[in-house]
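Dear H.,

Thanks for agreeing to be a second pair of eyes. The structure we're designing against is below in token form, covering all 459 positions.
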């Protein structure tokens, strides 16, 4: 053991790892960030192509509150609009979620469910959705979307996936009015960790979402070390004692990992506490970005497509962020639920584009003649799958963490939770002071033990 305080080791240079190091710095603790890949940002990467279209990994939205907390508010533009609708038919696109209350069959079925159905166990997603929203709305809209994200039937999914809609109906109506009055994309329920309010709205950083990661990385005391994969995490007596990074052993009593939890388990030496998380599954996404002539081609920024389309969501981000595509051009993002190895994942890029173009007709009738080009991205970590099968273990991870002292699994994939970047930020802001105190306490104990050991060996 060395007498100086060892650094906290942060695994992963995506937004969660960078924010963890940032928060440790605010709490006076040195951190070293190791990223396996050649660059930072992970799922928060952005790039601009030769034709002047800018992309993030999927469409990414952040708020002025999050950006202000990072000191980036001045480098952001305000989104003039944001809206989500559900495609029920070629002419019917009710606003999500309040417009669905205007569909008589949904209302009748929801009332029937409340009045006539006996109370029953609601731990399964399918039962809970039908109970909360009525059978029609659940079966026609909510469950097909949930199944597309998850790749499992809704009767094999836990109802805890649903406890995620933080904004009530009355507040949603109020916030939508605020959107209209202020002509700003007031946030409605995007972040779970902090409340919605009329003063919290969507913004977009200059340089794209990746600029957030770069800004945080630039403020760190030590540069992120890229091309440095974590290979092992050593434990002793259910406490972290070190890590192996790119063939080099480093002593530490605190590791913050942002790796997918089912990947983290494979790195642990000396404990089987994390073995139960090995079977957790992520649902992948195939993201097809079509570059088209024209603008405002969709009924709103996001169109949910529960039926009749091979993808579950279509997004026209330039409606909300006009500057990410050249004038009079736009991008339409089609998101397919997929799994590495399945038929959707295995489509060639050309096949994926053709599948979009040949099915988008009900939303954009002349889509083929507008097509300028496309880009296709395969993201294996789209959504954590809340399978009933391992629900007790998922709940235990959420409540108790890894169970190994000094090992903290954070971020969307590390916590195995449907959270966004701002949620990760607020969670870290709350958790890091205790992690910093524990790290300090363990380091002091370790150096006093070493002091005693040195006295004995010199005596
Ligand atoms: C389609 C889509 C749309 C989204 N939209 C939004 C949105 O609108 N707003 C929002 O806030 N969020 C959004 N999100 C979520 C957001 O992208 C994620 O929450 C966030 O980017 C995850 O960051 P992370 O650091 O937790 O993970 P990652 O970005 O995956 O970072 C983990 C890093 O760890 C590295 N790594 C892996 N293995 C090792 C190893 N052995 N050693 C060292 N490093 C390793 C990886 O290379 C990676 O860089 C969206 C996500 C998706 C998929």
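And this is the sequence the design step returned. I haven't edited it by hand at all.
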């Amino acid at each position: 053991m060395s007498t100086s305080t060892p650094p906290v080791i942060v695994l992963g240079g995506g937004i969660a790892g960078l924010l963890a190091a940032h928060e440790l710095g605010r709490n006076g603790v040195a951190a070293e960030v190791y990223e396996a890949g050649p660059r930072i940002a992970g799922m928060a990467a952005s790039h601009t192509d030769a034709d002047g279209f800018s992309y993030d990994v999927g469409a990414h939205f952040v708020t002025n509150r999050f950006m202000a907390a990072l000191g980036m508010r001045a480098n952001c533009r305000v989104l003039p609009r944001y809206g989500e609708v559900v495609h029920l038919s070629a002419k019917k696109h009710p606003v999500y979620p309040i417009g669905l209350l205007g569909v008589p069959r949904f209302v009748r079925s929801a009332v029937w469910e409340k009045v006539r159905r006996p109370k029953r166990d609601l731990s399964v997603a399918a039962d809970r959705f039908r109970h909360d929203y009525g059978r029609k709305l659940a079966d026609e809209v909510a469950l097909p979307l949930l199944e597309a994200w998850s790749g499992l039937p809704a009767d094999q999914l836990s109802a805890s996936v649903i406890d995620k809609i933080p904004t009530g109906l009355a507040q949603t109506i109020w916030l939508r009015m605020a959107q209209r009055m202020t002509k700003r994309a007031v946030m409605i329920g995007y972040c779970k960790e902090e409340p919605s309010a009329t003063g919290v709205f969507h913004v977009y950083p200059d340089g794209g979402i990746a600029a957030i990661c770069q800004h945080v990385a630039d403020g760190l005391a030590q540069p992120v070390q890229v091309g440095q994969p974590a290979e092992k995490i050593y434990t002793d007596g259910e406490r972290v004692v070190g890590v192996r990074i790119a063939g080099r052993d480093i002593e530490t009593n605190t590791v913050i990992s942002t790796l997918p939890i089912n990947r983290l388990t494979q790195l642990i030496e000396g404990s089987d506490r994390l073995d139960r998380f090995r079977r957790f599954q992520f649902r992948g996404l195939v993201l097809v970005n079509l570059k088209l002539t024209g603008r405002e081609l969709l009924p709103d920024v996001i169109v949910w497509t529960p039926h009749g389309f091979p993808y579950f969501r279509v997004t026209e981000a330039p409606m909300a962020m006009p500057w990410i595509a050249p004038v009079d051009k736009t991008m339409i993002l089609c998101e397919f639920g997929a799994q590495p190895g399945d038929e959707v994942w295995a489509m060639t890029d050309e096949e994926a584009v053709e599948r979009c173009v040949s099915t988008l007709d009900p939303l954009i009738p002349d889509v083929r003649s507008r097509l300028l080009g496309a880009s296709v991205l395969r993201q294996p970590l789209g959504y954590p799958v809340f399978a009933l099968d391992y629900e007790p273990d998922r709940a235990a991870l959420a409540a108790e963490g890894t169970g190994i002292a000094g090992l903290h699994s954070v971020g969307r994939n590390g916590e195995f939770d449907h959270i966004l970047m701002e949620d990760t930020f607020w969670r870290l802001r709350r958790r890091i002071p205790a992690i910093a105190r524990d790290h300090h306490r363990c380091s002091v104990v370790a150096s006093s033990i070493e002091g005693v050991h040195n006295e004995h060996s010199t005596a």
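Two observations from my side: The mean pLDDT is 92. The two ends are 19 Å apart (CA to CA).

Warmly,
E.
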